[in-house]
Design brief:
By secondary structure, the protein is an alpha+beta fold. The chain contains 4 helices and 9 strands, in the order αβαβαβββββαββ. The chain has helices spanning 3-21, 51-54, 72-76, 138-142, and strands at residues 39-50, 59-65, 78-88, 95-102, 108-114, 119-120, 125-133, 145-152, 165-176. It has a 5-stranded antiparallel β-sheet with strand order 1-9-3-7-6. It has a 4-stranded antiparallel β-sheet with strand order 2-8-4-5. β4 and β5 form a beta hairpin. The chain is elongated, with a radius of gyration of 29 Å. It starts with a helix and ends with a strand. The mean pLDDT is 78.
Length: 179
């Protein structure tokens, strides 16, 4: 036999072996069992106040539009949300921050307070982490505004440290369940 003929026969046998081993029972219904849990990290707010601007009145506040969950895909597949807040200042224990979530009608849906009772790092930071699961997430779906209010607490006279700045950071980690 000619080597070219042997090579052709070997190629045909190899092709048949490969084709038959790859054609086992395939289950295309597995796609229905697919589930993913993507995670989205987003900043909510960041601001800095010089100590002399945070102290003249009892409190300073601002409100921002909350549109993190505007998309129906996000609202429908929401599984868990973790809100993280951090307050930093040389006199951090003299401040209290109220974070208020409101709807279109200016109704309060949820309020979170950060004060001296929260996680203190022993130097100059207070932090708080709040996690909401499944049914507790309804207020986030309707929230349109987040209000931040910084208040000096337990001080009879303003503490003025000329080089001090109050820094506020907040973020959200949104977990989705996609099936």
């Amino acid at each position: 036999m000619n080597p070219k003929t042997l090579l052709k026969i070997a190629a045909v046998i190899l092709f048949c072996a490969i084709a038959s081993c790859c054609s086992s029972d395939l289950d295309f219904g597995q796609i229905n069992d697919f589930s993913a849990e993507p995670e989205i990290a987003a900043n909510l707010a960041y601001f800095e106040l010089l100590s002399n601007t945070a102290a003249p009145a009892d409190s300073v506040g601002t409100a921002v539009k909350f549109d993190l969950l505007n998309e129906s895909f996000l609202r429908d597949n929401l599984n868990k949300v973790t809100l993280q807040f951090e307050l930093e200042s040389k006199e951090v224990k003299q401040y209290k921050v109220k974070i208020t979530f409101k709807d279109d009608a200016d109704q309060i849906l949820e309020r979170i307070t950060i004060d001296r009772n929260d996680n203190f790092d022993g130097v100059n930071k207070l932090s708080k982490e709040v996690t909401y699961l499944k049914s507790d997430l309804d207020f986030l779906k309707f929230a349109k505004v987040i209000e931040f209010k910084v208040t000096k607490i337990g001080v009879t006279r303003p503490i003025v440290i000329s080089d001090d700045t109050l820094k506020f950071r907040s973020s959200a980690i949104v977990n989705l369940l996609v099936q």
